[in-house]
Amino acid sequence: MSKVHNFSAGPCILPTEAIEESINGLRDFKGSGIPVVSISHRSPQWEETMHDAEILIKELFHINDEYGIMFLQGGASMQFTMLAYNLLPVDGRAAYINTGTWSKNAIKEAKIFGNIDVIASSEDKNFSYIPKQYEVPADASYLHYTTNNTIEGTQFQTEPVSHATLVADMSSDIFSRPIDVNKYGLIYAGAQKNMGPAGCTLVIVKKDILGKSGRTIPSMLDYQLMLSKESMFNTPPVFGIYLSYLTLKWLKENGGVEAIYVKNEEKAQLLYSEIDSNPLFKGTAAVEDRSRMNVTFVMENTELEDPFLKYAEENGISGIPGHRSVGGFRASVYNALPRESVEALVHCMKEFATKNA
Amino acid sequence: MSKVHNFSAGPCILPTEAIEESINGLRDFKGSGIPVVSISHRSPQWEETMHDAEILIKELFHINDEYGIMFLQGGASMQFTMLAYNLLPVDGRAAYINTGTWSKNAIKEAKIFGNIDVIASSEDKNFSYIPKQYEVPADASYLHYTTNNTIEGTQFQTEPVSHATLVADMSSDIFSRPIDVNKYGLIYAGAQKNMGPAGCTLVIVKKDILGKSGRTIPSMLDYQLMLSKESMFNTPPVFGIYLSYLTLKWLKENGGVEAIYVKNEEKAQLLYSEIDSNPLFKGTAAVEDRSRMNVTFVMENTELEDPFLKYAEENGISGIPGHRSVGGFRASVYNALPRESVEALVHCMKEFATKNA
């Protein structure tokens, strides 16, 4: 079959090298003769991988020992609950910035646990921009925001300024660019974009912010307990962690977040340039807030959208329909998507414009 | 390398056929040209697999439409919390039978949510037997028990009699024998024994017992919401579900739970016979309560335990040390463990006895 250019928003394209190495592990994990899914999570071979994965993440993001790393389950949606359980004191307050579907979900879940101040929102314009004006209440325990809005195609270009502990959902742009972890109290991300397969969640937390909510926290939702057990309070999602580790190893071998950032900028600009110059297309996000991960666009003539989708699919372009809640198109250009896939999409857009001039 | 006989308690041996098919899926899922970990969970190909997995489980256990099937995350430990959130009314009571480490954990987590009556326990004899005498309080919302005690090597041979809704943790013996699902309100199991890899949790629930706890339940912990979204409220643990599906497909192709039950009985009896007849070894569980999944034993002369372990390992026997909390030996003889592996272990035990006569 011809090559598929996979622009899926997540689960998404992962490096072929990482997948092939995971296949080796599925046949024989580290020479044990046992598949990675069948070896005890208490075996030295597996414990080494857990350890190596943690070291690798600390290295990629230059994280110091004030921070702990956890591999959990349930995706970002479980973190919406878990972070509130752990960080929002009984009768306490927290501030949230509402920049789209996932921010809204985070706010909804946190409201179960306490008073939530939505201090800024871009809902007035269908979340097509990142709000710049907001004030964090003096008594907020933390400020929560979503660094990249997968569905709406917007992205914070810098961290919000906050006196309160900064908590970020980085599910769809983690490891896509350098960040200063020291600015954050807690960072979390479902793995299934730049990090690995669905079913594994990364949490990076400044240890001294924990243990202050005054709540009785169920064990599986307790960051302190998970940290103390090095993510092995119970059986971890072994394959998810393994393929995440292999994906991040690929990232390191390819220059780390600093190098991928340059490539990601180039890929995104290539596509945005075509959107801006091709008369058939237009971007949906405010130019200064455009996501480098999820490029959202529509067609000037919406009647051409179905024919364009069909034409693109015939040319091996997969996964570009917009999220079912917004329509249009969304091309996700995550770390593992090669530049040639973006070039193929741009080529399609140009050809389609010529045919429909 | 020589063949490894994998007696690991979990993650554990899975059918080679299922793993190989999952490898095909990691390269090209259903002819899409996209790996199963990289395809959208909203794609028709994936939705078909979710649907097929549900149908297959209903078929294997003869489950009617009064029951719902869910694929969740977090293992049985997350269910300890989730079931209490959903089934234990505010100010309500529930009854638990304490038969070992995992029962104790379930009790501990449920106590966060309400009044828990531990109506029977075998803790007085290191959980070496299954208690037979108990009374379920009239006001108990449910009775919780652990069908098979992975660490202690005991197993309920029949369901407890209960007027209250029966809730069972079947993590380590699900799909190993026929059960009458109609006797249960809720069954849950971490996948990583007979069902698939770690990182996927199966829940089977009688739908009409839900929605009565009177609690505000966080979305990710809400059975009704998860059911209404067919386990796709958020991105599911795709690979875990996929390999579980392939493992259960293998089970069906090999005669289903009825056929595997016969094989499992034979494997367990083969090993218990050797333990009972070999003067060097003795079983730790009460004979009538012995687990058919996890065969626990010690040596009459504990000084021979290390030499025996070494001898067994030299002969390709892997994963037989007992759980770190109890010591001795534990040979887990799950569905995918071939009879020849049990024969190899029995052969080792005989040879070792001859050498140490």
Q: Provide the CATH architecture of the largest domain in chain A.
A: 3-Layer(aba) Sandwich
What global shape of chain A is seen? Answer: globular
Given the helix and strand composition of chain A, which structural class is it? alpha/beta
Helix content of chain A: 25-40%
What oligomeric state is this?
A: homodimer
Rg of chain A (C-alpha, Å): 21 Å
- CATH C-level class of the largest domain in chain A is Alpha Beta
Which percent range describes the beta-strand content of chain A? 15-25%
End-to-end Cα distance of chain A, whole Å, is 31 Å
Q: What's the number of extended β-strand segments of chain A? A: 14
CATH topology of the largest domain in chain A: Aspartate Aminotransferase, domain 2
Q: How many helices of chain A?
A: 9
**Strand numbers in spatial order across the main sheet of chain A:** 2-10-9-8-5-3-4
Care to give the gist of this entry?
The first copy, chain A, is of the alpha/beta class.
What key attributes describe this structure?
357 residues; 2 domains; homodimer; Aspartate Aminotransferase, domain 2; three-stranded antiparallel beta sheet
Describe the structure.
Two copies of one chain form a homodimer. A seven-stranded mixed sheet of chain A has the order 2-10-9-8-5-3-4, sandwiched between helices. Chain A has 357 residues and is α/β, with parallel strands linked by helices. Chain A has two domains: 16-253, Type I PLP-dependent aspartate aminotransferase-like (Major domain) (Aspartate Aminotransferase, domain 2), CATH 3.40.640.10; 257-355, Aspartate Aminotransferase, domain 1, CATH 3.90.1150.10. In chain A, helix 3 (75-87) packs parallel to helix 4 (101-110). Chain A has helices at residues 16-27, 44-60, 75-87, 101-110, 223-228, 238-253, 256-277, 305-314, 339-355, and strands at residues 5-6, 67-72, 93-98, 115-121, 140-146, 148-149, 154-155, 165-169, 186-190, 201-206, 281-283, 294-299, 317-318, 329-332. In chain A, 34% of the residues lie in helices and 18% in strands. The longest helix of chain A has 22 residues, at 256-277. The model of chain A has no long low-confidence stretch (mean pLDDT 97). Chains A and B meet through helix 1, helix 3, helix 4 and helix 6 of A and helix 1, helix 3, helix 4 and helix 6 of B.
